[in-house]
Structures
1.
Amino acid sequence: MGGRGAPSRRRQAGRRLRYLPTGSFPFLLLLLLLCIQLGGGQKKKENLLAEKVEQLMEWSSRRSIFRMNGDKFRKFIKAPPRNYSMIVMFTALQPQRQCSVCRQANEEYQILANSWRYSSAFCNKLFFSMVDYDEGTDVFQQLNMNSAPTFMHFPPKGRPKRADTFDLQRIGFAAEQLAKWIADRTDIHIRVFRPPNYSGTIALALLVSLVGGLLYLRRNNLEFIYNKTGWAMVSLCIVFAMTSGQMWNHIRGPPYAHKNPHNGQVSYIHGSSQAQFVAESHIILVLNAAITMGMVLLNEAATSKGDVGKRRIICLVGLGLVVFFFSFLLSIFRSKYHGYPYSFLIK
């Protein structure tokens, strides 16, 4: 029975083989070769990615921010594969560029990168790099970038979106603001650790010592403490500092001014109502002080009982200060709040 059944099964298998189309074997062979090639390509990509990550980790072990030229930028940032986020600062730190804002931003960027490097959450999913204009001019041209400093986030997949460019003009470049932006783009939270700064403590100690020494020397005559004019001057200085935006500067850390890299023109007034430069706050402080001085002179001319001619001169000087500097202040307001219809003397 077993001998007769075996030939029968062989004949059935032969019939099944004869039913296969004659062109199926080359197709199956091609499919097999394609699968092998795809598997080899995938393996090659994995090896390339592993090499890139290993190289980036080696650079990060040496310094928190590594510099890139055009070739490195294209290899590690533009070219796939990539499973990590890259934060890049485009800057111009060479002395001949005279970019003071770039140096200030670089200090904050260094604080942020160091905080990430020495963080317990440090991993190979986020790296910090820098492209200097004199080392990667082709990169600036490729990205159509005409200003520095600029911070950009290059995600693991796809091209950077609009939100991947940090709004430095509106937010400033403080390390804490950069860390918040990175958390929004990558879900990686960096706790910023600043190096200890004792300048504030030393300044406070000197001030206390100065006031204490002054009180000790004048201990027999402390009538100046009750001087209303002195306290009024101190109060005005505090008001001028606060109303000019000094606290905003302290929180946001904006640049002192902006220099156009193409024509070298320096802007001291920010063109947006959502931001300001440090120089702008100084200008506003001086304008407010001049207007206040004019108001004081007008009050003095109206309340004093001196010579009429002298009071008239004081009145005219005070009126001139108020009119001119208020017009100047209003023109700055119009330049920041576009569409504001009112002006006075100065447009």
Note: The longest strand covers residues 85-91.
2.
Amino acid sequence: MPGGNRVGAVCADEFVAENVKLHRKHGERRGGGVWEVLGAVLTLLSAAFILLTFPLTGWMCAKVIQEYERAVIFRLGRVIKGRAKGPGLFWFIPWLDVIQTVDLRTVCFNIRPQEVLTADWVPLKVDAVVFYRVVDPSVWVTRVKNGYQATHTLAQTTLRATLGAHTLTDILTQRTGIAKRMEEALYTASRLWGVLVERVELKDLTLPVSLQRCMASEAEAARRARAKMIVAAGEVKASRALQEAASGLSPVAFHLRYLQSLSSVQSTASIVVVSLPTELLDMFLSHQP
């Protein structure tokens, strides 16, 4: 959506501005003196040489990079001031400049299953997926060596530390909140590298076999208890309905209903039906305490 793209661009710009402030806060300065002057002289001589031999050297001094890439240029070992070059065509000095191309597209990687011990001492195997992208190519190149491996290692340690602070019940019921907290922790630790962590998701939780059996037995017992409660509640409702129906019958109607019930019962070798007068039953019930 266009609105989402604008919001992402604003967040990236704020991220870059924050990194610039951090650079200034830490007091990163370029050295001066004779070497600065010598570098400026070499740059001017190289530019004059390129202009004089432009038809021959023009193709050597041009480079094209894609829309999703940026070029960080090191001139005599130092990053050129300003933002990274690109996208499109730009010019450089081949014998003075070294170019490093950075991909700005979102990178997705899987965290290998990690052995995690929860706060209630339950061992788990958890894997996750992380989405991030580079928003400041200059910082990405100059602040960290092999940023991809560093980000992967940081994600693994953050996963273990975040899940280790929660119980098994919290992990099973609050996966979204735990993933959000992990995302915030990764952002705080990696923003100094020019990286913006966009999303973190927990993929799979693997429990020990013995614990799976215990949880399955507990769930089965709970289901049986609920089933017995439902059956008992049904029997109570049925008995109340029969009591209400019997209270509205006259003695003659009650006696006819009793005889009809006896006729509907089939007598077999295993079932013997004996009919008793209702008066005898009334006498027996009247002597009960």
Note: Residues 42-103 form one domain.
3.
Amino acid sequence: MAEFGFNEQHQNEVINYMRFARSKRVLRLKTIDSCFEELKDSRLVEETFTVDEVKEMLDGLQVVVRGEVEMELINTAHTNVLLLRQLFSQAEKFYLRLQSDISELENRDLLEQVAEFEKTDFKTPDKKNQETSKPKLAPLNEGGVSELLNKEIARLQEENDKLKTRLRTLESQTMSALDDRSKAERALKDLQKVQGDQQFAARSQEIGSLEDTVAALKVDYEKSLSANSVSHKSLQENLISAKHDLLRVQEQLSLAEKELDKKFQQTAAYRNMKEILTKKNEQIKEIRKRLQRYEPSE
């Protein structure tokens, strides 16, 4: 079987199977021959037969021969399935996936090569070869496919270790980025709190000063009422004017507060803090995307 590229072990396996198939074929042919002999012995005892009698005998013979041939074909197909089962079972133990090309089963050149090999009558090997050619599925040697499998397993384990190391690095970077983000947020809140306290103190001082002024005017107004009724109208106008001034100042304070907030947002410290938070958020998003490629959510 050198034309098929078989080694000695596989060649012996093929020889054993072909011997088995030939023995089954010879046995079935003998059965068919016996059908004809039985017909001759049991029915062909007269010298003349009618057409109907001949037709009846041929029909009966056809049924018997057809049944024998069909049984042999079915048995051959089932036998081939059992042979494939042995081969596939052995391959799966070594994590191999065998494939077959059904079209090659009708390759006339290969079929002729098999026929030529069969004509050699399977040259009988010596006793040692017969012992090694017994129908036994031997494991593959360590220098062949098994070695390749071991190398592949080692490569996959090494790649897995690298992925685990990379994952731990990414986790460490993620935790560091989260810590930096927390620190930046706390610093921003502290800055905003200090700025707000300063603004609140300034507004409180201005309002207190205005309230003191209003109180003083009110006292003066009351004194003026008791001292001179003529100045009542003037004091009342002064009080109204002071109240208007108070409302105007409060409005100016509100505008000043908004302007102060606007200026604070334009300060370098605020912009830097906001830029740091933006960068940290982008880093966290990128790290999470990379983590999802290594640990997809189930």
Note: Confidence is low (pLDDT under 50) at residues 126-133, 135-143.
4.
Amino acid sequence: MLISVALGQVLSLLICGIGLTSKYLSEDFHANTPVFQSFLNYILLFLVYTTTLAVRQGEENLLAILRRRWWKYMILGLIDLEANYLVVKAYQYTTLTSIQLLDCFVIPVVILLSWFFLLIRYKAVHFIGIVVCILGMGCMVGADVLVGRHQGAGENKLVGDLLVLGGATLYGISNVWEEYIIRTLSRVEFLGMIGLFGAFFSGIQFGVHSSPSFLLRMLKMPWRSACMFGLYSFMPVVIKKTSATSVNLSLLTADLYSLFCGLFLFHYKFSGLYLLSFFTILIGLVLYSSTSTYIAQDPRVYKQFRNPSGPVVDLPTTAQVEPSVTYTSLGQETEEEPHVRVA
């Protein structure tokens, strides 16, 4: 449980680094192009993971993967790119408060998609933990209002709010798809194909709207690309050990880390509600991580549960028994398939 919480906080710190460098880009270099904020990251993913796939042999080779699933990864690459674009673009239209609140929409999206497509089943303690996390997020937004923190442009709030909801929905789709791929295929395949198609589409979109001089200015801030590359590389590891839902709950603390750093770097005003918000979210994460979720092989009748300390148990088709901790795999059941713990 503690490892799950700690891993999620590492991702939050990486997002904090991305947010801080983005602020410096905006203020010192006047760089507000949302597409390019992802372009260098996709290039790094391509150089590291796509080239790794290219030198592999057999069915894990890049060409073999493209022959079988190229159109799926093309759609996933577009979804991932546009999710980043929509949320960053929303800052030009709506307020920071609205973005912080509406960005939480990714959590119900991930829960619903995980329920219907990954067949993940939750218990009451999971929903309690989720509610506590969202309450902590609401407490942080309330603190922003009380201290009069900069609320953003807010020029066309409805458009900005719709952009945030659209971006949150695409993030949810991307995260659940990522969880499926890394559990049934591999982390390297996911990152390699995201790097390939993400670099292709973001390169086209960036080339239409930007100039070479702008590219040179952006290269002066390598830390942001390093943080994004670390986030993309490490997130599949955390998702495999926990879940997409757990990861998105953990990322709620990212804004608080950015705020705490901003107290020293940008002289933000402090409120005790920020500490209350931080610890409330952590309590929600502990509650959520205290009990394992489980996977229904059949959405109507739960059968063939796996336990790492014992053999496979076949439950009667008429039984309504739900074990407290369930282990199974997301792929087709085979005797050689390793046991996978879904936390």
Note: The mean pLDDT is 79.
